[in-house]
Model the fold of this input.
Amino acid sequence: MNYRLYCLTNIYISSLQKGLQTAHVVSDLALAARRDSAADQVFSAWASQDRTIIILNGGNSLSLERWQQWLQQCGQRWPWAAFREDQQSLNGAITAVGMIVPESVYLNTSTHSEDQELYDKLQQHGLAV
Done:
C-alpha cells in the first residue's frame, strides 16, 4: 500500500515557514508512532517507501482548529498530528495539521465514510504557496 502525508498550513505564514511547520508535524508523527503500533506501521511504510508530502493551504487558525477537532473525532484511521507555535512566537497559534493517508483515500476508492469525508475535505484546499 502507498501513502501520502498531507499537511495543511496556516495561510498567514511564509512559504519557508510552511515547509518548516510541516517538518514539525513529521517529527510529531514520528514521536506519536512510537506509542501506537498501527500508527508506527503506517509511518514506517510512508517514511521508507513513499515519502510523498503534499502541503496544502489550510486557511486561518480557526480552519486548522476545525481540522484538529475533526481528526480528534474520527481520525483514528490515520496517523495525524497538529503543531502549535509556542506562546512567545505566535501566541500558541496552530500552524499546521498533517495526516498520513493510504492511497484508497487520495484515489477516492475507499468505502469507509470517514475516508470519503477526508477525501472531500482535502479537495477543498489548494496547494500552499
